[in-house]
Amino acid sequence: MTDELAVLGIECFGHHGVFEFEKREGQIFVIDLVLGIDTTPAAASDDLRDTVDYGSLVASVKAAVEKDPVDLIETLAERISGVCLLDDRVEWTRVTVHKPDAPIDATFSDVALTITRKGRP
């Protein structure tokens, strides 16, 4: 059985995008994380060492978004999922990258990509 730990709405500033002005000026990206983990050990021990420290995870995700510009949110989402899966207790992760200020010549509220990746068996 897998439980779900979610951290939603993580605001990061990155320089990702296909266009040169996106890389130069940067923009806000909003990240949603859902992790599939077994929380039974942590519930039994009431010890942070027995679960995923979401504070540390958020710091690592922010660092991943804020470094090395890429063209596509697909590449960025894959990078973030790799960060989430570094902890062997994470069975799977669902990562959504929101790009609310994407350069689209239309009125819209959000551009978002969601990927799901499995950890090591």
From TrEMBL:
Listed name of the protein: 7,8-dihydroneopterin aldolase
What species does this protein belong to? Nocardioides endophyticus
Q: Give the protein's function.
A: Catalyzes the conversion of 7,8-dihydroneopterin to 6-hydroxymethyl-7,8-dihydropterin.
Q: Which CDD domains does the record associate with it?
A: DHNA_DHNTPE
Q: Which gene encodes it?
A: folB
Dihydroneopterin aldolase/epimerase domain mapped to chain residues: 5-117
Q: What is its EC number?
A: 4.1.2.25
Q: Does the keyword Lyase apply?
A: yes
Q: Is the Lyase keyword given for this protein?
A: yes
Per the record, the similarity remark reads:
Belongs to the DHNA family.
